[in-house]
Amino acid sequence: MGAFKDFVAPRYELKEAVRDVSFQINKGEIVGYIGPNGAGKSTTIKMMVGILVPTAGRIEIGGLAPYDNRLENSRKIGVVFGQRTQLWWDIPVIETYKLMQYIYKISNEQYEHNIRQFSEILGIDEFMYTPVRQLSLGQRMRADLCAALLHNPEILYLDEPTIGLDVDVKERVRGFIKEVNRTRETTVILTTHDTSDLDKLCSRVMVIDQGELMYDGELDYLKRNYSKCDILTIETESEMPEQWLRERFNDAYTREGRKCHIRIEQEQESSADCIAWFIHNSRVKDVQIRQTDIDEVIRNLYQTFKQAERE
Ligand SMILES: Nc1ncnc2c1ncn2[C@@H]1O[C@H](COP(=O)(O)OP(=O)(O)OP(=O)(O)O)[C@@H](O)[C@H]1O
Ligand SMILES: [Mg+2]
């Protein structure tokens, strides 16, 4: 009934998916494009590859507007949407590649060279003759990556290329992206929810929220400014008296028996001073420092956005 109603009397609502997003990317860069669900990442990528036409503003990729020059643009780009496949469902992987060779007019030499190199790094030869419908997610993703790169594109768009992959395949995919970027100077634009992708691949990140660009710059800067604290864990031979800890650290500590976890806020406290204090007052058995990981940084960043909205 709902489907029928939608068909005869559809209701429309205007949605601004991206607004005032401006950036420039140089040849050979790997840029991470991140943001919460529904932020507008895929929409930006779709505009850049020419699937969507922006209602306002301008996009130029190598001097061309992608949506006006779709054919020419598509020769220069490779695209992988982690959620979808561009491989033909019913035929073996190799047949898709042959079709691509024909469509993109790839020379035999380049084709052979690429297939050989991709097999080496990604191990696609294991399932080259299997129909795509029988591939596992990780195999399909690897096959898709190769398909996107067969014609030696200058730019590679990756929309969540590591979604759902196991640790080993993730690592291989990352290694492959890095290698392609290094050896062919391919520009890579990567959206992901897996922060270790960023750590391994990108020095620059752009953060989008609710359709607006909130940050564009070094990943390291982001880490330094949005990591709130380090956690120092010290194990002593006997339990530290509660009162000493309270006097020294106020409420910046928690304890589990002989272990104390101290929150180190860099501007107020130094780990070295803390460790010295423990050594002075007890026999220390073990010391560990855990730095804020990138996940925490991104969480802090998104929370800051949410807070700013409420205010
Ligand atoms: N074809 C469409 N028609 C209407 N609204 C859309 C369409 N595609 C996306 N949107 C809306 O635009 C907004 C941005 O969506 P987009 O897919 O770009 O988000 P995203 O950042 O890629 O999110 P995710 O991390 O979940 O993939 C969302 O609110 C979404 O509901
Ligand atoms: Mg998306």
Automatic annotation (TrEMBL):
It comes from the Bacteria. Pfam families: ABC_tran. GO terms for molecular function: ATP binding; ATP hydrolysis activity. Transmembrane segments: none annotated. Keywords: ATP-binding, Nucleotide-binding, Transport. The keyword Transmembrane helix does not apply. Residues 2-235 form the ABC transporter domain. The keyword Nucleotide-binding applies. Gene3D superfamilies: P-loop containing nucleotide triphosphate hydrolases. SUPFAM superfamilies: P-loop containing nucleoside triphosphate hydrolases. PANTHER family: ABC TRANSPORTER ATP-BINDING PROTEIN, ABC-TRANSPORT PROTEIN, ATP-BINDING COMPONENT. This is ABC transporter ATP-binding protein.
